């Protein structure tokens, strides 16, 4: 981690420099969860939205975009966020014949550092529409006493005996999630959505468990993998998808998704008003 630029004063680059990108191996965190890279219990992706993309056209005129970078969850590495911001800024004065060449350059460089194919989508700023809230039941108005602010999977208690054997389809979400950057300790806010088919997950228990991340220091992606694994271990759902839409910093946001479902349409995943 000595080469990690996060938390250090850094001059923003003025020339294209793909060497700025820093890889963080996923396997160290996954070993702590008892996961093998060859037999992951989920598929999914980390979906980054970029709001401050810019470069020059062939004549030197600035072009500006919004973008989406989709990293497969099975990639060897995640990309350290500040290094990605610095890298994207290094493209600001680079000339490209057209937006497609710009996107291809980003895709090639992200694939190199992550160890897997990365889908890069860019769009005109005027082409983006924003829905308001996730579809599902919001947990935020539940009347609860909460005193656990360190991650604790024991908070995931089963439903009452009458409901435990009931099989249901449900989408539950909260805007109350917070974790903290493992380097700077800055808070990371997110909307977390849990979509499942199986035995009922009590909303009260789920909310208490998600709130227990409030003082937890970890990367966005690692938090969501831990949530997925804990829910899968306790409730053994037939299908499960966990998504987090984190608020952005420095023009980038990260949206990890982990799921038992294959072939999810990641480019269609929405942004909400809060984000």
Outline the secondary-structure elements.
Layout: E1 23-25, H1 27-32, E2 43-57, E3 62-72, E4 77-79, H2 81-90, E5 95-96, H3 99-114, E6 119-123, E7 137-138, H4 161-164, E8 167-180, E9 187-199, H5 203-211, H6 220-235, E10 239-246, E11 252-259
Parallel strand pairs: 2-5, 7-8
Antiparallel strand pairs: 1-4, 2-3, 2-11, 3-6, 8-9, 9-10, 10-11
Give a short synopsis of this structure.
The protein is built from 6 helices and 11 strands.
Overall geometry: elongated
**Distance from first to last alpha carbon:** 29 Å
Helix content: 10-25%
CATH superfamily grouping of the largest domain: GTP cyclohydrolase I, C-terminal domain/NADPH-dependent 7-cyano-7-deazaguanine reductase, N-terminal domain
Write down the domain tally.
2
Per DSSP, what share of the residues sits in E-state strands of 2 or more residues? 25-35%
Query: Which structural class do the helices and strands define?
Result: alpha+beta
Low-confidence stretches: none
């Amino acid at each position: 981690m000595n080469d990690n630029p996060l938390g250090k004063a850094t001059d923003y680059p003025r020339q294209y420099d793909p060497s700025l990108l820093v890889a963080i191996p996923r396997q160290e965190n996954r070993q702590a969860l008892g996961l093998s890279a060859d037999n992951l219990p989920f598929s999914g992706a980390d979906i980054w939205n970029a709001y401050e993309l810019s470069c020059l056209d062939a004549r030197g005129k600035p072009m500006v975009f919004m973008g989406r970078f989709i990293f497969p969850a099975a990639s060897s590495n995640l990309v350290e966020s500040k290094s990605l911001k610095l890298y994207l800024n290094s493209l600001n004065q680079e000339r490209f014949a057209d937006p497609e060449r710009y996107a291809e350059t980003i895709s090639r460089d992200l694939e190199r550092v992550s160890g897997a194919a990365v889908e890069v989508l860019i769009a005109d700023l005027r082409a983006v529409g924003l829905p308001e809230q996730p579809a599902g039941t919001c947990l935020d108005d539940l009347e609860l006493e909460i005193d656990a602010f360190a991650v604790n999977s024991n908070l995931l208690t089963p439903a009452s005996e009458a409901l435990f054997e009931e099989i249901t389809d449900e989408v539950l979400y909260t805007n109350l999630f917070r974790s903290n950057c493992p380097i700077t300790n800055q808070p990371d806010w997110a909307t977390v959505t849990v979509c499942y088919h199986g035995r009922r997950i009590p909303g009260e228990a789920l909310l208490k468990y998600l709130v227990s991340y409030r003082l937890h220091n970890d990367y966005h992606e690692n938090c969501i993998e831990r949530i997925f694994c804990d829910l899968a271990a306790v409730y053994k759902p037939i299908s499960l998808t966990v998504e987090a839409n984190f608020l952005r910093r420095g023009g980038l946001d990260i949206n990890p998704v982990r799921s038992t479902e294959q072939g999810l349409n990641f480019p269609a995943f929405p942004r909400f008003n809060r984000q």
